Amino acid sequence: MKTPAIHRRALFASAAATLVAPGIWSTPLPAAAQGTGGTVIDITRARTEPIPIAVPDMAGAGPDAQRMGQNIARVIVNNLRSSGLFRPIERAAFIQTPEAAAQAPRFQDWRVLGAVALTTGRVELSGDRLRVEFRLWDILPEQQALGTAYNATASNWRQIAHIISDDIYKRLLGEDGYFNTRVAYVSESGPRDRRTRRLAIMDQDGENHRFLTDGQFQALTPRFHPNATQIAFMSYLRNEPRVYLFNLQTGRQEVLGNFGGMTLSPRFSPDGRSVILSAIRGGDASIFVVDLASRRERQLTNAAGLDVSPCFSPDGQQIVFNSDRGGDQQLYVMDANGGGVRRISFGNGRYATPVWSPRGDLIAFTRIGRGQFAIGVMRPDGSGERILSEGWSMESPTFAPNGRVLMFYRETPARDARGAGFSARISSIDIAGFNERQVVTPNDATDPSWSPLLS
Amino acid sequence: MSTAKTLLSLMAATGLLVACSNTEQAAVTAGAGAGGAGQIRPGSQEDLVANVGDRVFFDTDRSTIRADQRTVLDRQASWMQQNAAVQVTVEGHADERGTREYNLALGQRRANSARDVLVAGGVAPARIQTISYGKDRPEALGSNEDAWAQNRRAVTVVR
């Protein structure tokens, strides 16, 4: 607060500022003992003990900066805890004050709490300018593992907290995080036979919630573009169910393609240049790919039956989809040009809503059998099927950009003939099948779509 | 064996339900009529519901017209020929025991199946539109076999 200009100049002398997200600049903080090695926890095993970490409030001069420092720390704590891979230590147990820790951590005070890692930070507020200095400490070797200063307008404080959370995740787990992301979904309200369904968007932790459509027409199945600037979805505008594009920067909506009938289940290709979808012509639903520049469409399947829910592999070479061509719903994989179709699901039940992991190693799906719905994963060749969660009704998995977490939606049955007791909510779960958590939304929520990493 | 038995009992159940839901609908529309006293305008939705039947039901995951449902569509085709100015939308629906995207396609295929019977019965294709709502507009709001049987439907609606 006292001399922010000097602080910034001093840092800029040592390293250029980097734009990490729109309006957020970062500069590395020099440290005597910045480690290149240090602790990296292996989470490739199915399930690990969560990492004990101490995240005290960030220090700040004056009540506004202190409150901001507290808010940022609490967003970080919530992110790390919700991942299931960290165990933030209760702040009531802390010995050293945030201010003292920000000056120089007394490692013994944190080691006795069982912490493996410690974060410290300092917040400076000057008008609407926010500067956050953040450091991550490796407690056993007593050295700084990360040090970064973030500069942005104060309204971006949540995003800075998410970026710091991703920094911690990556430094300690050795892989990219997923906290600086958003989720598009369908917000549902009203009685079951007259539901209002609106597109909505929120941060992955449920904050910054915003409606994208007004509910005048039904909107379903939003899906993010790989650069997160637009969403493909299905709209009942003019009572003609069609796939539309929604530009998140301008708010503009436009219909995609001219198929003369219903189009549904859109998804962008990994390079963002085309949309794959299902269109109904005659009695069958077939898969088409639409080039976004030329708007030319190409038909990829023409078997008898319903081919829906296509999704590209992350390298764009293959497509997984859902078809009842063999009598009931199963999963099939084909080459991106429509050739080489092979069935990959052979377990008990019907399979649907396949979605390819951004890592390429797994396909998540919905399985319906014996009166139950389940969310599971299998390898792209159909082997290694694992069920992660099971219940009365659940569907529509979507991967976090690092492929480690899924969101999906879960429904509870109606208790009576008026539909009382029915609800739909989004859950997240680790792909190892633990740490299922409900995402808090203002209304019923379905069809989640996880954005790419925004920084 | 057990599948066949389930199917049979389902067919019996839905047979009853057809009657049930039609009477309910007719009662509601008769009560709501502006003129009251059972005045139903020929060619109206009320006429279709009370005297013909506005909907057919389907087996789980199927969109073929069941033998026990076909007569409803045959009656609808004759009714549309008698009321030559009437245009309709056939709305296809599914029960809640499927995934949203597949059910949207399934509902469309059901609407198409019903339309095809109307066209085969002599109705000009230009008089019939189709739309699918998948599982998203249930008629029966419960979560049980009876409700699901009522929701796997194609409903003919006068435009």
Automatic annotation (TrEMBL), chain A:
Superkingdom per UniProt: Bacteria
Cell compartment(s), UniProt: Periplasm
TolB N-terminal domain ranges (all copies): 40-144
Span of the signal peptide: 1-33
Pfam family, one: PD40
PROSITE patterns to which the protein is assigned, alphabetical: TAT (PS51318)
GO cellular component: a single term: periplasmic space
NCBIfam families linked: propeller_TolB (TIGR02800)
Family according to the record: Belongs to the TolB family.
Name of the featured protein: Tol-Pal system protein TolB
Organism: Roseococcus suduntuyensis
Taxonomic lineage from the root: Bacteria, Pseudomonadati, Pseudomonadota, Alphaproteobacteria, Acetobacterales
Gene name as annotated: tolB
